[in-house]
Amino acid sequence: MKKTLIAAALAGVLASTAHAQSSVTLYGLIDVGITYTNSQLTSKGGHSNVQLTSGSVDGSRWGLRGAEDLGGGLKAIFTLENGFNVNDGTLGQGGREFGRQAFVGLSSVDFGTVTLGRQYDSMVDYVGPLALTGTQYGGTHFAHPFNNDDLNNNSFSINNSIKYQSANYAGFQFGGLYGFSNDAGAFANNRAYSVGASYSWGPLNFAAGYLHLNNSAVSRLSPNFNANGAVTDDQPLVAARQQTWGGGVNYAFGPAVVGFVYTQTNLTEVFQTGVGTHFQNFEGNARYALTPALTLAGAYTYSRGGSSAGSGTPHWNQVNLMTDYNLSKRTDVYLQGVYQNVSTSQNSVLGVAFINGLSAPSSTNNQVEVTVGLRHRF
Hints:
The chain is mainly β. It has helices at 2-21, 122-127; strands at 22-42, 45-54, 61-71, 74-83, 101-108, 112-119, 158-165, 172-179, 192-201, 204-214, 239-253, 256-270, 277-289, 294-307, 315-326, 331-343, 366-377. A 16-stranded antiparallel beta barrel has the order 1-3-4-5-6-7-8-9-10-11-12-13-14-15-16-17.
């Protein structure tokens, strides 16, 4: 009898230990709002619109995150994260089951983390948190024109990728990613790579990143189309090559944080025309916690573009404002507004305003959106 009780007790202890060393977490976020837009282009001209929107700030998602302690500071980790439209329940990211992230890897306390699968690039990881579009204080509609620098992570993730992120060395972190083309005989056809770094020193936070895409959006009708590539079936900018780099700084004092971000994107052979173009983005931003529950945030972005075909030099001015109130630790309501104006030196297809995340561009050179939204995290 005593032996049976001892064996049962040991089995219980071992089961508890095994449970403590391995864990799986279900998590998610639902963001839904009512959005007013002053002008959207239709077949009958421009009209205002009031619509239900999913993900005006954060893309709605759910996921599974797990870790197993392997001992000696080493863990096996995985993440499977789905994106969806809460309005109609459809899958996001081209209908993928886990379109936002899907990876597995090893994480070391001393040496960093290596993961393999579908993942975010280094511009998202390092520079994104310094711009309001990459945070919960701005998100989708605050993105720079056409999300040209990928700081808002709803446009694409990198398939077939291996990623390294270092440990935190006294505030300094760095990392990089390589996305394979998976195309026999065409190693560079639809591949991706990126690098980034950040440094935190007291209230200061610095970051920089670089992203390179090759043949990311070749038409399916082209003989060069790669069905297995790094960003196939995603929504990058349509070009034979994209190079994006940038950096930023944030400074926190008391309940306030102020920051500045600069990015540039160069595109080669846009729409397979042989024409190149570029975007430069200058963002100043700030947020202030009036109370533990109430936060105000705002940003001003000046963007300019250029084309090797000489079709005008568009300039964008965008003002973003948001107030957020926490009803609890997991639920908040927000009011957000964005104004965008674009001007060009000549007639250009970029001469109409188009706030990121809206269903259609404006019929004129300016556009306004106002959203009242609700977010719930679980």
